[in-house]
Amino acid sequence: MRKILPILLALIGTGAGVGAGLFLMPEKTAEEHAAVDCVVPTEEVQHEAPKDAEEDVAAGREYVKLNNQFVIPIVGPDRVQALVVASLSVEVATGSTETVYAREPKLRDVFLQVLFDHANIGGFEGTFTSGDRMSILRNALLESAKPILGTDVTDVLITEIARQDS
Question: pTM, whole model, 2 decimals?
Answer without folding.
Answer: 0.65
